[in-house]
Specification:
about 15% strand; alpha/beta; about 280 residues
Length: about 280
């Protein structure tokens, strides 16, 4: 399987950058993502983006993705969020384009957590324009659907990407959001493989026993340690190969309290690799 095992920032969110590098190395991850708010926080503390990039790359872990850009639709309104919320949305596109370039990332995630339901045609116009702007900076954009938001499911995201029809515009697919929205395996298999830029893998109970937003940000489970049909999900992905950037995204208070950095990296990698191996 030709892909980079990617340590999505959500899985190690409480860890500082040095601890994340230790987690990544322990698990054999070669790529990672960063949240814009934590890059800004580091800059406020006097750490430049060049220094952040050098810190990761020197350890053999490249920053592949900046995740997310939430302020791109005309319906966006500033949310009331604490400073450390992972989807903090008060970043202009130009700021994140510059941040991505400085960090060495060529991929930026795009979502709509603070918008009403996005009509596909209007969403496609906005996404196409954003893709064209990103292309001027040598960047690709991946649209992520988030259950319960303006782009809530795979069908909505794919219609926007399809209508926008930009070579640098694709999708990020998260297994948790796939199952917690409208899981359409036939549609998943029909999406052109080249339009799925990245994959996030996490598990959960078959049915939610908590409010969705809370479960999403606090109590996901390691791949294979829940009840979601992840093997079926992985086998339904289009193409013979996994997306180029594939790895765990597991927001979990329990895991963060239980494991130190190296152990956390090892567990994330071990459980994810076991699921990936079952795809073939």
């Amino acid at each position: 399987m030709s892909f980079e095992l990617t340590l999505w920032a959500a899985s190690v969110m409480p860890l500082d950058f040095d601890e994340r590098i230790r987690a990544a190395r322990a698990g054999g991850f070669t790529a990672t993502s960063l949240f814009p708010f934590e890059v800004r926080r580091a800059e406020d503390a006097g750490i430049t983006t060049a220094e952040i990039r050098d810190c990761f790359e020197s350890a053999g872990v490249r920053i592949a993705v900046v995740d997310p850009l939430a302020r791109w639709l005309p319906t966006w309104r500033r949310p009331q969020l604490p400073p450390g919320a992972p989807a903090s949305g008060d970043f202009e596109a130009e700021e994140l384009f510059a941040m991505s370039k400085a960090l060495g990332a060529d991929l930026l995630s795009v979502l709509a957590p603070f918008d009403p339901r996005v009509e596909p045609e209007a969403g496609a116009v906005a996404f196409a324009s954003l893709c064209d702007h990103a292309a001027e900076h040598g960047l690709r954009l991946q649209l992520e659907f988030i259950a319960g938001t303006g782009i809530p499911d795979l069908a909505s995201a794919w219609e926007i990407v399809r209508l926008a029809d930009r070579p640098n515009g694709g999708m990020l697919i998260d297994s948790w959001h796939f199952f917690r929205s409208t899981p359409d395996f036939a549609l998943l298999s029909s999406v052109p493989a080249e339009r799925v830029f990245a994959l996030q893998l996490g598990d959960a109970p078959a049915l939610p026993n908590e409010e969705l937003a809370y479960e999403s940000l606090h109590s996901r489970r390691l791949p294979g340690e829940g009840e979601l049909s992840l093997t079926r999900f992985l086998r339904a992905l289009p193409g013979e190969q996994l997306p180029a950037l594939s790895g765990p995204e597991v927001f979990s208070d329990r895991l963060w309290a239980r494991y130190q950095a190296e152990e956390l990296g090892e567990r994330l990698a071990e459980t994810t690799r076991a699921l990936f191996a079952g795809r073939v």
